[in-house]
Fold this sequence. Notes:
By secondary structure, this protein is α+β, with helices and mostly antiparallel strands. Helix content is 49%, strand content 24%.
Amino acid sequence: MSLSLIGIISVQLYWIKRSVDDKEEQFSNAIAEVLNRVTDKIEEREMRDYSDRFLSLKDSLGVVKSSHLSNIFFIDRDSNSNEITFYSHGILEEDYNIASTFFDSVTGDSTQIKNVTSKRTKTIYKEEYGLDGRGYRLNPIQKLEKIGGLSTVDKAVFDDVYREYAENVPIHKRVSKQEIELLLNQELSNMAIDTDFQYGIYSRGLPTKVKSRRFKFAESTIYKAPIFKNSEGSSNFTLLLTFPKKKKFLLESVLGMAFLSLLFTLVIVIAYASAIHQLIRQKQISEIKSDFINNMTHEFKTPIATINLAVEAIRNPKIIGDQEKVMRYLQMIRDENKRMHAQVENVLRISKLERNQLDISKDRVKVHALIHKAISHVELIVLDRGGYINTHLDAERDEILANDMHFGNVLVNILDNAIKYSPDAPKIDVHTEVAKNYIIIKIEDQGAGMSKAVLKKVFEKFYREHTGDIHNVKGHGLGLAYVKKIVEDHQGEVSAESEKGKGSTFYIKMPLI
């Protein structure tokens, strides 16, 4: 499952990267097309300007200085259809002797501009002999005439003339910044590219005056196309285009898809992590419950064995007549029965607490009185083991709203733990103090202590430490879970500090009345 999840994440990241790369390639192709369109439009506009200026000058002069007409004829006869084709093509060359200022030429020589007009005529005649005896005649059945058109070669010659003269004009007079910006904005808008750009025209690798204010040359991020090409397709000028925010634009274009992909992948990762966590948690709970059942079986096994032995002893004819021994065995059975009953009650109490079925009524009680009462329950055991319980009840106020029995059990449980987990003679100190509107109860022992890992789980139900001698201490891991539930039900807080081999300290913080 982990390998599959890693594979899914890797594939997602790979496709996101591929998408960005594809977008970048599409972007580059689109920019190349934009640059080609812009340069073509600028060149066409320049040629159109020269043509318009020439026509306006020609119309203003009006008089032809000199003219020359050349004519070519072609005649063809088709004997099958009796058709004769006449074709003629005349070239009329008119010289207006326009001044050199037309091209803004840097030279002082005169410039000759000629107007060439083409006239094409095609006529087809059909030979017919009249039935009425009038004889032979030619009947025109098709006539085609074109005037003013020039061939592709003728047009190329004129374009070449314009280009040659235009090369002598400075670049900033041939094209303006406003024209470049307008055309670039139009073409980029047509391509749905909405991001900032900077441009510049370079001549043989050197910058010209025609460039945007923030244009910076960077070989790796520049798009370029030749501008003002000559008849051979080469040019000394290059239009350069850069996009400072290209990466952001490309990422935004795939952001929606990438976000959804990463979101769904994150959901899968969270679900997977949650499933693994639940599996580990269930395994831990299973182990804890198995341990609890084993402990419970052990705890019940001893009193049941004792009761069985006592019953067998009473059934003995020699014992049944001894009233004193019978009473002693009956008391033993009663004590062991109470012990089992207390264990069952402890388990049931925790179960009811979890289901909020335990009815806990609260009254005004004094904490110091509850502490003394709890100490009296365990004092004999402590003294029997050669230990002590010292009290340092320094709180000026000690009245809280609590359930006498349950809160007393809380104190008894903590004291009982301090006794059980003290390998030597139990040495316990109980402190109280007031902090704002709370009373702090501190129960400190010098026992075995707990590691940090154990300290994190010490208030969990069924949890018990199983290392060293502590494994032999009787219990079900319910005592401190019960303590936490009761204290929280009283709107209080319970916490612990401990260090392995140096004892533990439990803190209970309760709101004062």
